[in-house]
Amino acid sequence: MKQHQIMSRRTVLRGLGATVALPLLDAMLPGTLLGAAAGPAKPPLRMAFLYVPNGKHMPDWTPRTEGAGFELPATLAPLKDFRGDLNVLTGLTLDKARPNGDGPGDHARAMSAFLTGSQPRKTSGANIKAGMSVDQLAAQHIGKATRFASLEIGCEGGKVAGNCDSGYSCAYSSTISWQTESTPVAKEVNPRLVFERLFQPGGSKGGVAQAQRDQARRSILDFVAEDARSLKNRLGGSDQHKLDEYLTGVREIEQRLNRVEKVDVKGLPEGTTKPTGIPRNFEEHVKLLADMLVLAFQTDLTRVSTFVFANEGSNRPYRNIGITEGHHELSHHGRNKVKQEKIQKINLLHVQQLAYLAGKLKGIREGSGTLLDNCMIVYGSGNSDGNRHNHDDLPVLLLGKGGGSIQTGRHLRYRRDTPLMNLYLSMLDRVGVSVPRFGDSTGRLTGLDG
Questions:
Q1: What is the DSSP string of 44-78?
Q2: Which of 18, 288, 319, 422 has its CA 20 to 30 A from that of 352?
Q3: Which of 346, 353, 240, 351 is closest to 291 using CA atoms?
Q4: Among residues 236, 253, 276, which one ends one of the domains?
Q5: What's the Rg (C-alpha) of the chain?
């Protein structure tokens, strides 16, 4: 006979140097028997901030009409299945990315101000200064409820020293998250290390266990199998199915990581090293990191994340879609139509990766809705047109319904120079962080709740 108890949301599967957190199960919901059918519950809200560099080709980004009847323009076409789950926000401005007397350096300012709303100090030395970012402010307040206060990931590493943009430190153009005004938070670019962070307890014991798993070439799930079987026997049918799906997903990610790491370096130039979890293919890299983000949210390991697709000013080519020129180089298109078409292709590729993440989040049932319903996902850039380096009318999307507090499926146009920070102030309210202002905010962003 099943006991009249609720399974803790913090329940994990344990094995040799491994801990596998669990998704939200019916048995974790208040007022239910262990494994019995669950009544309505209110899952936690999550917030993530996704950054893409060098602005967008705005004519193919901005919908022509406002409100609920808008058509997705060419660049947003990959989001057609999620049109009812997002809002396109037009007219938002990042004033602190403007020179404001500091001269050139728009790329550095765009990224460092995107989540801080603060003017970065123009320096290439150690005396960097921006402001606390919104993700870290949220993490300070709601991060205590999860194993990790926040998760910072990205597809390009960065330096914290040196001059990367017209007298601005490299820290500014490669860092989006700031713990304090002078402390940038490094992002992890290696999917394998993100995976181990999520599923392995810290300390030397965990490191030894990981080495044993690597040597035996065994899945992390092998080490928690006994605990998983024991738990499954105590669950109802719905929860058993949900657990099976989740563990299958974890195993699939492991297999993809293994494929990345089994690249044969024979025949390559001398000194070529074997990849250690960082795919050469951009799309595969983004998708692996996106899967890590979904796992972290699904298992409530964190409720706050940043995800940088590429650093500001990134000049990486995208040869897999036929783009051999660098992204930054192309963004200075001078209204050349051929270059603009290539920029649009890069923009489209980035949005396709966003659609992948949205699909993963929407495919996970949680409470009476989906995991995406319980998220607020900001996607955008601190530049608008990369050729003009303007920071008004930014390309910004907001995905997710914020637990029912956001009316989605609309194109919302705001008055000129409405601060981007007004959006973040409204998001903070929804996760229970009430502050009078943030960065250069002038108030809450209106219209999100309909």
A1: PPEEEEEE-SS---GGGTS-SS-BTTPPP-GGGGG
A2: 422
A3: 353
A4: 276
A5: 22
Q: Do 72 and 198 belong together in one domain?
A: no
Quickly count: other Cβ atoms within 10 Å of residue 222's Cβ.
14
Domain end point (choices 276, 292, 323) = 276
My answer on whether 353 and 373 are in the same domain is yes
CATH number for the domain spanning 374: value is 3.40.720.10
Residues 171 and 205 in one domain: no
pLDDT (tens digit, 0 to 9) for every residue of the chain, 450 residues total? 343 346 788 889 988 778 899 998 888 876 544 444 444 458 999 999 999 999 999 999 999 999 998 999 999 999 999 999 999 999 999 999 999 999 999 999 999 999 999 999 999 999 999 999 999 999 999 999 999 999 999 999 988 888 999 999 999 999 999 999 999 999 999 999 999 999 876 533 444 455 555 544 578 899 899 999 999 999 989 899 999 999 999 999 999 998 887 755 455 455 545 556 689 899 999 999 999 999 999 999 999 999 999 999 999 999 999 999 999 999 999 999 999 999 999 999 999 999 999 999 999 999 889 999 999 999 999 999 999 999 999 999 999 999 999 999 999 999 999 999 999 999 999 999 999 999 999 999 999 997
Structural domain harbouring 412: 44-189+278-450
286 and 430 housed in the same domain:
yes
Query: Per the structure, how many domains does the chain have?
Result: 2
The amino acid sitting at 258 is N
Tokens of 310: 């590429």
